[in-house]
Amino acid sequence: MNEPGRKVRGVEYESVGEDYLQRRQLRRGAAGWVLLAGLGVAYVISGDFAGWNFGLAQGGWGGLLVATLLMATMYTCMVFALAELSSAIPTAGGGYGFARRAMGPWGGFLTGTAILIEYAIAPAAIAVFIGAYVESLTGIGGPLVYLFFYAVFIGIHLYGVGEALKLMFAITAVAAVALVVFVVGMMPFFDPANLFDIAPTDAAGASAFLPFGYVGIWAALPYAIWFFLAIEGVPLAAEETRDPARDMPRGLIAGMLTLLVFAALILTFGPGGAGASAIQDVGDPLTSAIAAPGAYGTQNWLYTFINFVGLAGLIASFFSIIFAYSRQTFALSRAGYLPRVLSITSGRRTPFLALIIPGLVGFGLSLTGQGDLLILVAVFGATVSYVLMMLSHIILRRREPELHRPYRTPGGVVTSGIALALAVVAVVAGFLVDPRVVIYAAIVYAIMIAYFGIYSRHHLVAQAPEEEFALIEKAEAELAGSGGRDG
């Protein structure tokens, strides 16, 4: 039964009974740092198999290289900051929990919903790429393939998180082997001239290195992000981790280092073996690279192997981001930011509606078949959340220097400040490719903000973990006579 609660600077809290949280429990202790590192790589590894190559069509190889270096810097700095935040504030809310602590309910909601846009849309883009690989292998693609993969992998998550994470780790390991085999197979065909075979345009600064000029670097940023997008989802597993203070930093950093190596190898030997122009606008760039006239020129054993085993990479990210969107939906719902029914868990401690409903939305969007445009929508949500999470790190360092931080970011606010500046650049870059897509995403974001402003901010749950510690902190500050902050 709900009881009236306190009002705290523009939001209202309701107190709930014990049964509320008992019906919203996740399975504890399901993952250590090795599984977390695997989860981090799984979130992202599909970006090595498809999606990044559209950056070649926007900036050429040179433009995509510069964009990738910038985004690699942003993500590396961000991971160090998130390692600190997740060790200090280990809740299933992830970025929402960090921003809630730093910037109050509005900051938490804005961050959490931006992350939710990213994670609800990214699987739809990946489903389109899975369809392209399946079609090149079997001749069958499209909506039936999308539906099959959504149904199967949501079903596995419904069965249980421990089983899902272990299967995810195994699939990711197979995908990593496929990437290594691809790189080795393309090495004999590597020629630096292949990197620069896109003809220069008349844009400002255009050259063989930057065929679309300086603006091509900006336009390539959303696709460079695809090499790393979703690594920030690892903290969403905090409540299902054995020792978050120890395991979260290790898992995040190990996962990021792995992704940096793969990005460097794929960006070098994919276009370097086949030619940048051959793979700039295809849904299956690795198999297309193998079959390109400049490489093997035919569908040989390597083509079949990468096509078949490479599906594991796309599946790993598809599978793991389903986990991510369900946990973000669960946390926001449990705290009352989204309809509370979405956070109810089954007897196996899985948030079944938080798995199914965003999955239906994603499946509907996958039917557009526009993987490159869906990437832009996912990147919009991601980059907005990066700005807010890095602001949260800086604010908490300034406002709460005594907060217990089992791990501390090297370089402190300088590191998170670099990530913040680059995230702002990345937000703007999305408008260069197709402003209509980003505007549509912004409209959805605005609708969600309106829901919070009109309804849910008056019905937040005081006992939700992300909210409870903020209210306790507020009360302690008032008792100390300081007046506290807004909570």
What can be said about the biggest beta sheet? Answer: 3 strands, mixed
The end-to-end span amounts to 24 Å
- Arithmetic mean pLDDT: 87
What topology, given as strand order, has the largest sheet? 1-2-3
Radius of gyration: 22 Å
**Count of alpha and pi helical runs:** 17
Structural class: mainly alpha
User: What's the order of the H and E elements?
Assistant: EEHHHHHHHHHHHHHHHHEH
Q: Residue ranges: pLDDT <50 for 5 or more in a row?
A: 482-487
**Number of strand segments:** 3
Which band does the percent of strand residues land in? under 5%
Quaternary state of the chains: single chain
Helix content: 55-70%
**What shape does the CA trace take?**
globular
Q: Which features does this protein show?
A:
487 residues; mainly alpha; three-stranded mixed β-sheet; 17 helices; 3 strands; globular
Account of the 3D structure:
This protein has 17 helices and three strands. The longest helix is centred in the first third of the chain and has 44 residues, at 95-138. The two termini are 24 Å apart. The protein is globular and about 70 Å long. Helix 2 packs across helix 7 (161-186), helix 5 packs antiparallel against helix 12 (301-334) and helix 7 runs parallel beside helix 9 (244-274). It has a three-stranded mixed beta sheet, with no helix packed on it. With 487 residues, it is mainly alpha-helical. Helices cover 68% and strands 3% of the residues.
